[in-house]
Design goal:
There is one protein chain. By secondary structure, the protein is α/β, with parallel strands linked by helices. Helices cover 44% and strands 15% of the residues. Helix 2 links the parallel strand 2 and strand 3.
């Protein structure tokens, strides 16, 4: 009898937006389970120390210039990761952003930037990695959706729109690429304690309202709680799961 395996030894992963927050936690968690990790960074010169932490675990790490708004950098980073490590088994499309503004005040430049990073960047990174994985005959792609794709958040209409689109893109790619041995899934976190949410959560009223809306567990999530689901989806244990988006929302959308 073969029991479920969560071991990633010998696997190669590429994580976008890997410098901090969820990207950092996901990169470290994948390395902890045995994967070598390529780190997609908006500014490769701004060393956040993630590569050194991965190497300290005995895994290989590769820092890559990968601004998700520059498709030439996206394609180059995927190619360099595959060339350096000899293969690419896992892509985690973590990079994302969401400028807040009431819908009636959204600026075109904010709309374009949010779509460019969250949706366009995710698609073309998946396309580039997908081409490598199709040649290999195997691969795992994990996208970053959000509870915002399943629940309306005031002042975040564009962000919500892109994250809902990610959930459906995940299904589309899963159906199209399954014949090549590629699974495509997504995770959809609630508010997580990261540098990106630090300012918002520092507001006592906002924090209290957020905790109340996380209707099951009534607490703010931690980055490694999202990373755990990513590791699962990247592992052999999730071999029969594809096209799914796992909500990691503490019960927010269950209410």
């Amino acid at each position: 009898m073969d029991f479920p395996s969560f071991d990633l030894t010998g696997q190669v992963a590429l994580v976008t937006g890997a410098a901090r927050g969820l990207g950092r936690a996901i990169s470290l968690a994948l390395a902890h389970k045995g994967a070598d990790v390529a780190l997609g960074l908006r500014d490769v010169k701004a060393d956040s120390g993630v590569a050194a932490e991965i190497r300290a675990m005995g895994r290989r790490a590769l820092a890559l210039q990968m601004d998700m708004t520059r498709l030439e950098e996206v394609h180059r980073a995927v190619a360099e990761a595959a060339r350096e490590f000899g293969r690419l088994d896992i892509l985690v499309n973590n990079a994302g952003l969401g400028p807040e503004n009431p819908a009636e005040k959204v600026r075109e430049e904010d709309f374009d930037l949010t779509v460019a990073v969250n949706l366009k960047g995710t698609f073309f990174a998946s396309q580039a990695a997908g081409r490598v994985m199709i040649r290999q005959g195997s691969g795992k792609i994990i996208n970053m959706s959000s509870q915002a794709g399943f629940a309306a958040l005031p002042t975040e209409s564009i962000y919500c729109m892109t994250k809902a689109a990610i959930a459906h893109l995940t299904k589309c790619l899963a159906v199209e690429w399954g014949k090549h041995g590629i699974t495509v899934n997504a995770v959809a976190p609630t508010f997580i304690r990261t540098p990106g949410t630090e300012t918002a959560l520092a507001d006592a009223a906002f924090r209290a309202d957020t905790i109340e809306r996380i209707a099951g567990l009534h607490r703010i999530g931690e980055p490694m709680e999202v990373a755990g689901a990513v590791v699962f989806l990247a592992s052999p244990a999730a071999a029969l799961i594809t096209g799914e988006t796992i909500l990691i929302d503490g019960g927010w959308t269950a209410r």
